[in-house]
Amino acid sequence: MANPPVIIWKDEVERLLRYRELIPRLEVALGKFSWRDSAELIQPVRTTVPLQKHDGFMGLMPAYMENDGVLSTKFVCFYKREDGSTLPATQATVVLLDPEYGNVKAVMDGEVITDMRTAAVSAISAKLLMRPGAEVLAILGTGRQALSHYNVFMEMFSFKEVRGLRGLETPVSGPVTACVSVEEAVRGADVIVTVTRCTEPVLFGQWVKAGAHVAAVGACRPNWRELDDVLMKEAVVYADSREGAMAESGDIILSGAEVFAELGDVINGTKPAHREKTTVFKSLGMGVQDAVSAKLVFDQWKARHSQL
Ligand SMILES: NC(=O)C1=CN([C@@H]2O[C@H](COP(=O)(O)OP(=O)(O)OC[C@H]3O[C@@H](n4cnc5c(N)ncnc54)[C@H](O)[C@@H]3O)[C@@H](O)[C@H]2O)C=CC1
Ligand SMILES: O=C([O-])C1=[NH+]CCC1
After folding, report:
1. Is residue 22 assigned to a domain?
2. Nearest listed ligand to the Cα of residue 88
3. What letter does residue 149 receive in the DSSP assignment?
4. Are 81 and 26 in the same domain?
5. Ligand 1 test: best mutation among 145, 204, 220, most atoms within 8 Å of CB?
6. What binding partners and quaternary form does the record give (predicted)?
7. Which ligand is nearest to the CA of 216?
8. Domain co-membership, 251 together with 234
9. Are residues 44 and 169 in the same domain?
């Protein structure tokens, strides 16, 4: 008889998940994904159910890593939400299963996992694609993802200046230059992170310095945008999953831009990192990122509870 599933709440996930352990595991998983070896890893494009009445979507994000014995799925609800709404923009739960028996081993909060693994993958994109000596980081958005991106970028890199729109200085715990407009925030920036709920372009190519790296995290629907056509066409575009980007990214579909490579291709050495050019990393989020994070949380949880 299988043990009943454990439930791991948000505060415990927060205590257990650390970027220094998460990032190397995500890099390995991104690389495995890009080999497209179904004996190693299976991750279909997320299934999305529209919640029309609530202006949102429920995404189902399964992943199976055969050799690692990891089977999981995330349920994530995400909403358009008007500015000023007090309702959450994203809510998620991750379910970890035993691939042999099919029983649920753990049900855990997916909000912290979503915040941290998304920011960690953006940081990996910057590590691979930004120019050496990058000094100025701009973060567009002041919500949950803005905070997790701030935290991991501060942990991994040493920028001389971080700029953001007014409001970013409230959640973060370090110095931020508050800017009155997107243009002011991004002009001259070496790395730009877009973590907004925008459905129309907010970042325009004419403001972006040649050679900058953009990690574009919002706009995860085929008709939503954060970046304009000029930027999308000028930049070398990378994605987490090519299939995900072609199915879900308005910035890619509507601009007609081509996905040059996945981050995993760069990690595997099968595609180059064009650090010298303007680069866009289009992030949609992947079930395998959640699977790796959930396994790490569960392993840490077991280790901690076996000592009690
Ligand atoms: N790529 C991925 O893996 C993931 C993407 N997301 C997406 O990331 C985005 C941010 O998510 P959260 O931080 O959780 O949401 P949030 O609601 O906490 O923050 C959203 C931010 O966008 C800002 N915003 C809205 N309209 C704007 C505009 N026109 N100009 C500038 N800023 C604007 C809001 O003021 C707020 O600061 C969402 O689009 C969400 O769907 C979320 C999770 C994972
Ligand atoms: O990967 C993810 O969890 C999400 N991507 C877009 C909204 C939520």
Report:
1. yes
2. 1
3. H
4. yes
5. 145
6. Homodimer. Binds the thyroid hormone triiodothyronine (T3); T3 binding inhibits enzymatic activity.
7. 1
8. yes
9. no
- Is the pLDDT reported for residue 16 higher than 70? yes
What tens digit of pLDDT does each residue of 196-223 get?
A: 999 999 999 999 999 999 999 999 999 9
Residues with CB under 6 A from ligand 2: 76, 78, 90, 92, 114, 220, 284-285
Report the nearest atom of ligand 1 relative to the CA of 289: 3
Number of structural domains in the chain? 2
Boundaries of domain holding 18: 6-113+288-306
Residue of 128, 118, 290, 130 lying closest to 217 (CA atoms): 118
| Same structural domain, 96 and 161 | no
Which among 257, 199, 196, 200 is positioned nearest to 230, based on CA atoms? Answer: 257
Tens digit of each residue's pLDDT (9 = 90 or more) over 51-106 = 999 999 999 999 999 999 999 999 999 998 887 888 889 999 999 999 999 999 99
Residue positions counted in the chain: 308
Kindly state whether residue 41 falls inside one of the protein's structural domains.
yes
ipTM: 0.96
Answer whether 249 contacts ligand 1 (Cβ < 6 A): no
Together in a domain, 124 and 270? yes
Mean pLDDT of the chain, nearest integer: 96
pTM score, whole prediction:
0.97
* Separation between Cα atoms, residue 223 and residue 266, nearest integer Å: 28
> Rounded to a whole number, what is the distance in angstroms from the first to the last CA of the chain?
24
150 in the same domain as 68: no
> Can you spell out the DSSP letters for 27-91?
HHHHHHHHHT-TTTEE-PPPEEEEEGGGTEEEEEEEEEETTTTEEEEEEEEEE---TT--S-SEE
For residue 162, give both structure tokens: 């971080």
